[in-house]
Amino acid sequence: xxxxxxxxxxxxxxxxxxxxxxxxxxxxxxxxxxxxxxxxxxxxxxxxxxxxxxxxxxxxxxxxxxxxxxxxxxxxxxxxxxxxxxxxxxxxxxxxxxxxxxxxxxxxxxxxxxxxxxxxxxxxxxxxxxxxxxxxxxxxxxxxxxxxxxxxxxxxxxxxxxxxxxxxxxxxxxxxxxxxxxxxxxxxxxxxxxxxxxxxxxxxxxxxxxxxxxxxxxxxxxxxxxxxxxxxxxxxxxxxxxxxxxxxxxxxxxxxxxxxxxxxxxxxxxxxxxxxxxxxxxxxxxxxxxxxxxxxxxxxxxxxxxxxxxxxxxxxxxxxxxxxxxxxxxxxxxxx
Amino acid sequence: xxxxxxxxxxxxxxxxxxxxxxxxxxxxxxxxxxxxxxxxxxxxxxxxxxxxxxxxxxxxxxxxxxxxxxxxxxxxxxxxxxxxxxxxxxxxxxxxxxxxxxxxxxxxxxxxxxxxxxxxxxxxxxxxxxxxxxxxxxxxxxxxxxxxxxxxxxxxxxxxxxxxxxxxxxxxxxxxxxxxxxxxxxxxxxxxxxxxxxxxxxxxxxxxxxxxxxxxxxxxxxxxxxxxxxxxxxxxxxxxxxxxxxxxxxxxxxxxxxxxxxxxxxxxxxxxxxxxxxxxxxxxxxxxxxxxxxxxxxxxxxxxxxxxxxxxxxxxxxxxxxxxxxxxxxxxxxxx
DNA sequence: GTGAAAGCGCTAACAG
DNA sequence: CTGTTAGCGCTTTCAC
Lengths: 336, 336
Description:
In chain A, 45% of the residues lie in helices and 16% in strands. By secondary structure, the first copy, chain A, is α/β, with parallel strands linked by helices.
């Protein structure tokens, strides 16, 4: 049978209360009994049950993570960085793939609640804030990462998508491009629309006109962006550069270009977003806007952890700056 | 305050035992009280506490997953497929990144134990079987995925690495290659050494000699394999084809070839292993040996779940067949 | 069919 | 300093 606090107490010749106290390092215990208890725990290989301690009013030391899809490299990297920090702080991470489905999100949240997780990190694309309001009402601590939700005061850490979009377009403009298109997934997602806003501002700032027909929306996968890029490239007046709102979409652009025998960056310049491993792997290596994933993961966990422990303070927005990572997919425009 | 089983009982005018019975669908309850209880649970939005029910003797409906690194696409895809199936069966998944460190593995296992997970899935590269023997002794159900451990009877699902290695080499040979090298990560890992064994057998079967100097070992990352491939390509007698023991390593080979202005597959044929998303993304698309990740994930979860519920039966090894996925990175050897 | 009561392993007053 | 005791929310005999 599993060894319990009673076994330790008996073996050490003390009460369970005493054992509990040495475990939790509270109250005043004589050095003597403390070492005695420790040695007994050691020899019996005792591990306190988190379940029991949670039921008795302590935490479960578990956080939930809602994300669209682990198989998506960006979110895998986010999850990795979150798990790292969570583990450092003594929390386990339960992972939930929502595929951005509202029902799944709700279902998982309800599940996490039943399991009494201490807090939830949300990286999934909740469209409305109802679900978050409910969470607030339930007093279940939560924080968002890489997803904005401006209509409600929440803890959130994300990159400045507007700035990132601006930087991407500005870099292209700086290289001499004037015909710049953009490809995004679902523009109802805040981060996409912000990146596009930034892109647009850079254009207008440079005296270029924003052309809606150069804004393509597609599914969040390679074939989707390949098709979208194809439509752009087959236009009467095709762009000389494409800003893909994330690295995965940039790969679709690469494929569309390849199908048309357009070289990158010779005929077509491409810039991505996220700086996932994809960016360094494709040929030519992708110039992209980097998100500080490590830092973001660390910060959400820290914030959530503080909330859990009641040191929350006011809700905060941590907006990190993206960075331009120059590789080889952007050059001066083709001047054929 | 949170609504408990007592609230339901009071509101429905029955005892908590009765409520418990309708929740768990055991015992004989009149249709009348059943519906009454249900409606009260509904209206009070009652969610039974998994913690309490676990402490009282039920499961936690949680599985642990030990893997080296979520940010590694292969494992991310594995994790995704496992989470999918686990969720279907009502289990949550807590993820643990071990970086293949023995101490981390042990630490995480001990943690999972404290949290009373119902079972553990291990995808991390445990080198010795001690840790697994301990697990067995503790009667904590577990299963391995994508990692072999031949010295102990365990539940395990993996791909036939030997066959996969054979298929890779055989495909190259079939195309006319005779100078075939191989790059692997840590050969102490079973799957690597098996793939190499299969490769070797294919060579010898074809009357080709196995040359140890054409077997390169490197760290499990792109720069590592780039260097390894470089060494191969700079050999006096360089190979005309390289079998990279996984897709990530294949990318390093691509880079080494590019640095030397060798075209793929013109000058050098390359074949990978795993068929992760990388394979379809690189240029040219990578011919590779596919692991049925979905199927594997589904099967470990099913097996583990049966064990948890006591329908375990004998330990089993599920060896799935890999498949050759032909893309564009292999051709007939260059006949300059 | 239904309920009373013991207990799962631990925490947290409170008493001594 | 240490022990007693009452729960935490739920499951499970065992009576009725």
